[in-house]
Design brief:
heterodimer, A: 437 residues, alpha/beta, 2 domains, ten-stranded mixed β-sheet, 20 strands, 38% strand, globular, B: 249 residues, Rossmann fold, six-stranded mixed β-sheet, four-stranded antiparallel β-sheet, 12 strands, 38% helix, 28% strand
Chain lengths: 437, 249
Amino acid sequence: MSLKEKLLSSYIAFEDHLEDDSPLHDLRNKAIKTFETNGFPTKKEEAWKYTSLNSLLKKDYSIFPKQDQAVEFKDVRKYFLHDIDTYKIVFVDGVYSSFLSETTHDKLDVCLMSSALNKPKYKPVIEAFFNKVAKEDSLTSLNTAFAKEGAYIHIPKHKEVEKPIEIINFSTGNEAAILLQPRNLIVVGENAHVQIIERHQSLSNNAVLTNSVTEIFAEKRAYVDYYKIQNDGPTASLIDNTYISQERNSNCNVHTFSFGGQLIRNNLNFYQKGEGCDSTLKGITILEDKQHVDHNTLVHHIAPNCESHQDYKGLFGDASTGVFNGKIIVEKDAQKTDAFQQNNNILIDEKATINAKPQLEIFADDVKCSHGCTIGQFDEDALFYLRSRGIAKKEARALLMYAFANTVLESVKIPELKGRINKLIAKKIGVNLGFNV
Amino acid sequence: MLEIKNLHASVEDKDILKGVTLNVKAGEVHAIMGPNGSGKSTLASVITGKEEFEVTQGSITFQGKDISEMDPEERAHQGIFLSFQYPIEIPGVSVTNFIKTAINENRKAKGQEDMPASEMLKMIKEKADLLDIDRKFLSRSLNEGFSGGEKKRNEIFQMAMLEPKLAILDETDSGLDIDALKVVANGVNKLKSADNAVVLITHYQRLLDYIVPDFVHVLMDGRIVKSGTKELAYELEEKGYDWIKEELV
């Protein structure tokens, strides 16, 4: 039985447990039909030309993992931002871990999707926002059909959340192979501020495939900082589908740090629905071995006077492969748009590959759009300059890598997180410079 | 200190240096002059070990050691420093962090511990004062957005920090106004001692008014064709290089 067939038959069993009058029931049925019709994306589709899921789909994934996988905090402490106080929403093999989490209902909701989907008091928010910005593509639909757990965050208006929120999905390896489909909903009220860190972490070498969907709604003047740490093990793969809907004068920033994992596909979509929005999409990708990371971004400028800034840096070693596919759409009404996209890549080894494709679709006539894409090797003159000062080749290369990544790192607003990312980069490139850039 | 014998070097099979012989002793200042494309910057690059140049013949000896096969960083550890004609911009790495890294990398190569932070700060302050460098300048990204003069001053600041035995200054005077030139020259003069040596590569005699050379060499078409004292520099300033070419014919 193929994974698709297995999923379709699992859905029938899953549906049995759902209440008939659940408002989501129709939505799920529709979603599974979309998946049934379209199946998993293949390389024949333009958007998946350079990323093949074939080998991943051959594994026999467990779809409804056994519950109660105890994980000791001391064993996973390092994956948390443990030096500062944070809210934590933690899942182990797709199941909420109250033991590792620190949620709240005190003037803001930092809790669980399962509660939000089932408890009447959340019904208005679910009806207003759930699946309202997500695309109806095959993988998102697959997630929607099975959506039952994930983070639910609702920040009321004018609330400045004083500590960051961590969303962490652990997988224990208790199953030979596991398919996880977290579903997150984040609603940030008018003039509210929030910082969120998302991480997927496998604790074994068993196969994990995560098909995650996150919807973020930024109301008027809301400010959202979202950080994705993708530093998973060599047998863990992630398809991240993130959709961000922005109202007037809101500001949303997503930083994606892709350092580890077998295959990562980031579908990051921004929709600027009100005037004066600001969107920032930044990423650092550092790969080795045969790792594969595909950044597929969309910034959809619908309203006038908005800005978007994209800055993706990639360092590709060994036989790793990278894809950057950045699309900017400027609608007819989105006059005075200022859209900027930059994607710079360094191929460290001869076998590494990057496929980069900027796409601009502009229907307005008074806009400022620019994009730049570079693919190169290390600047030999810069290397010589550093070495002539007595800095050994390896360290000199590391210094250049830090410098290269700096434009992305400098806008990380949580100092402890920035320090952590610095350390991850140091570990990744095997050199600690003794200072943070 | 530095002995170059019959040095031939090429880049992409094109011969640039065609038999350079040069002796520099401790305590001396040598100026190398010559028209554009004569091989001056190549000579500096070959002495400091830039990999794109291939030494095809001859030898470079520094303090009795053959350095022609050494990596650039090893040559730096031996005490050779090059002030670049076009210093490279490194965004995100401050001047201070860069120089700290360089100093500690040099110490590491010599089997020494990192320099204690307090000592480092004291040294940075002292050398920055010597070159009239503002403290704010030190926290800026290395060479990024620096004016031509700031870049050159920063090169000499690095030289002051690293205390090389042999400093090669490649067109350090270009892009400097007269005040900046005086500051830089003054810094170089203060760093000069009986134990170290300076090689100045320049187009113009102007710099030599401030850093007075013991010897002046003319490099043309990859060879040193004439050597003399500082008076030779005045002669070149006045008459250009053509008369030397004619002399050679």
